[in-house]
Design brief:
This protein has 13 helices and 16 strands. It has 2 domains: 203 residues, Medium-chain alcohol dehydrogenases, catalytic domain (Quinone Oxidoreductase, Chain A, domain 1, Alpha-Beta Complex); 132 residues, Rossmann fold, CATH 3.40.50. It is α/β, with parallel strands linked by helices. The two termini are 35 Å apart. It is globular. Strand 15, helix 12 and strand 16 form a beta-alpha-beta unit. Bound molecules: NADP nicotinamide-adenine-dinucleotide phosphate and zinc ion. The site of zinc ion has 4 residues, from loops.
């Protein structure tokens, strides 16, 4: 990184349009941020679309005690755009190509995790926003912006058959649900639960269905039942209905929990068969209360999962290309981002907002 840093700094900076928040209760407002000029291994991307993840909302509102927000905060880690410039050492991309960036923009590249394609576990990994910026100082700025400069290794190829606005959420919601399903062996005939039908949840349903699992959605929103079936669910359970929950006791191979708020994970653990796994991907700040008994019986596993590595993210995009999978999106101009946050906070989105960044360029 040090040579890159030197090269980049010597090549200077430029200004990029963006939306940032100045504090946990501030609205996102237009601003100008510095980006580095691309170094030898960098790619400069003109951002076309950026998805709005619930993590953006958690981070902007400083809801995570483990990851305090540094302001100004420019969120956004579901990025799709077009390459405008490449460094002299770049081999995989050329100007004019489509390109995508997810939650990661750097890592040390040498540790066992990086070598294993698990950059998300590298102790030096740099997140797309709110991570220390080794090039310019301060913190990294995300995709609510008209351009970004990223090291080639962290830039993904976008399959040509995918709608770009609907493909942007694959870069976080997609990989975060695909990765644990691959890790825990979701295959044909497995009984898989998806808890929470939001941005992540609706992607999980699509992946589990494409992997030919028997998919059961657990939702708190009765009005999502029809959609859940349309997205690929075989059964839908309204999780407040105790009788329905009991009917599924000790039958699941795997459950993915995408819920963004506090809820009862013990009721979900009870649904796992012997050696079944509940994987948490949803990230409420407050710790869950976990019943030892719920784990002891049936030797159940409780695990977590964080996005996915770069190679697996490309694998996921190629899987989406083959199965024609994208997110169900509501495309908004960036001027509606604060309204979108309010709606996301109250669960009023089907099933992902994507910002059309042309609205920022013309502002
Ligand atoms: P989202 O679109 O807001 O979806 C969350 C869903 O959770 C809601 O649609 C709702 O589904 C359910 N829910 C919300 N409040 C609930 C409550 N009080 N009790 C029960 N269910 C509730 O959010 P998202 O973008 O999918 O993100 C979900 C979570 O994953 C966030 O915490 C986010 O930070 C986290 N995340 C983690 C990773 C990772 O790497 N692990 C990556 C991205 C995001 P129903 O209406 O169907 O009940
Ligand atoms: Zn995300």
């Amino acid at each position: 990184m040090s040579t890159n840093q030197f090269t980049s700094q010597s090549r200077g900076q430029y200004e990029s349009k963006a939306y940032s928040a100045m504090g946990p209760t501030s609205l996102l407002v237009p601003t100008s941020i510095s980006r580095r000029e691309p170094g030898d291994n960098d790619i400069k991307i003109d951002i076309l679309f950026c998805g709005i993840c619930h993590s953006d909302l958690h981070q902007v509102r400083n809801e995570w005690s483990a990851m305090p927000t540094v302001y100004p905060c420019v969120p956004g880690h579901e990025i799709i755009g077009r390459v405008t410039n490449v460094g002299s050492q770049v081999t995989k991309f050329k100007p004019g190509d489509l390109a995508a960036v997810g939650c990661l923009v750097d890592s040390d590249g040498n540790c066992p995790h990086c070598q294993a394609g698990l950059e998300q576990f590298c102790s030096q990994m740099t997140l797309t926003y709110n991570s220390p910026d080794a090039h310019l100082g301060g913190v990294t700025y995300g995709g609510y912006s008209d351009s970004i400069v990223v090291k080639e290794h962290f830039v993904l190829r976008v399959p040509s058959n995918l709608d770009l606005a609907a493909a942007a959420p694959l870069l976080c919601a997609g990989i975060t649900t695909y990765s644990p399903m691959r890790h825990w062996g979701v295959t044909k005939g497995r009984k898989v639960g998806v808890v929470g039908l939001g941005g992540l949840g609706h992607m999980a349903v699509k992946f589990a269905h494409a992997l030919e699992a028997h998919v059961v959605v657990f939702t708190t929103s009765l009005n999502k039942k029809v959609d859940a079936h349309r997205l690929g669910a075989d059964e839908v359970v309204v999780s407040q209905n105790n009788e329905d929950m009991k009917r599924h006791a000790s039958t699941f191979d795997f459950i993915i929990d995408t819920v963004s708020a506090e809820h009862d994970v013990n009721a979900l653990l009870q649904l796992l068969r012997p050696d079944g796994t509940l994987t948490l991907v949803g990230a409420p700040d407050r710790p869950h209360a976990v019943s030892a008994m719920a784990l002891l019986f049936n030797r159940r596993n409780l695990s977590g999962s964080l996005i996915g590595g770069i190679a697996e993210t490309q694998e996921m995009l190629d899987f989406c290309s083959k199965h024609n999978i994208t997110a169900d999106v509501e495309v908004i101009p960036i001027q509606k981002v604060n309204e979108a946050y309010e709606r996301l906070a109250r669960g009023d989105v089907k099933y992902r907002f994507t910002i059309d960044m042309a609205s920022l360029k013309s502002q």
